Amino acid sequence: MSSHKYDYLFKILIIGESDVGKQDFLLRFTDYSSDHLKKIGIDFKMKIIDFEGKIIKLQIWDTAGEERFRTITKTYCKGSHGIILMYDVTDKNSFKNIRNWMKHIEANVDKSTKKVLVGHKCDESSRVVTEEEGKKLAEEYNMGFFESSARTNKNVTEVFNYLVKEILMEKGAFNDEEGIKLSYRKNKKNQCSK
User: Phi and psi of 13, rounded to 5°?
Assistant: First the structure.
């Protein structure tokens, strides 16, 4: 697959508090070694995927969760096609702050930008946020929901495939005749096995 030929270029952001596992999630998907640019509050990776015969180039931005980087995050929200909102299932505060991130996103992105909520580190035994709580919040904001683990590679690729599919459907470039979406409603493999 040539890195110069692709059908679509999509910008995807990973947003959430610090230490929820955004970097590990990104690295697991892109197979890159760690070379983060934390000092400027952003980490950027590219990956080309073949999705249903369409070659998609993904620009994936891991935005830093620290308050001091929120202005940078605002800049990078512009022009995004998809957003992964991530919290740590072992950190209730990171889950509660999803509402703050949603306010920030709603003020800075186009309404057509696709979003998915991801409860990360679901392989951990010290869970404090239930899967039901995550599902309920995702329903409230009308977005897909997954629980994931970078360590076990649980639902990492599935999250990106879900977003790509939603973006393509928004653009009218993908016809899902059966209306199947890789969300918690129909995705039987969503549960995170310990």
Answer: -110, 145
Per-residue pLDDT of the chain (194 residues; tens, 9 = 90+): 444 688 899 999 998 888 888 888 888 888 754 444 444 455 678 889 898 888 999 988 887 655 555 665 667 777 889 999 999 999 999 999 999 989 888 888 888 899 999 999 999 999 999 999 999 999 999 999 999 998 898 998 999 999 999 999 887 766 654 343 333 333 444 456 54
CA distance 118 to 106: 18
**pTM of the predicted model, to two decimals?**
0.81
Select from 140, 136, 142, 100 the least CA-distant residue to 119.
136
What CATH class is the domain 8-190?
A: alpha beta
Domain boundaries, the chain: 8-190
Cα(49)–Cα(9) distance, rounded to whole angstroms? Answer: 11
Classify the C-alpha dihedral 104-105-110-112 as positive or negative: negative
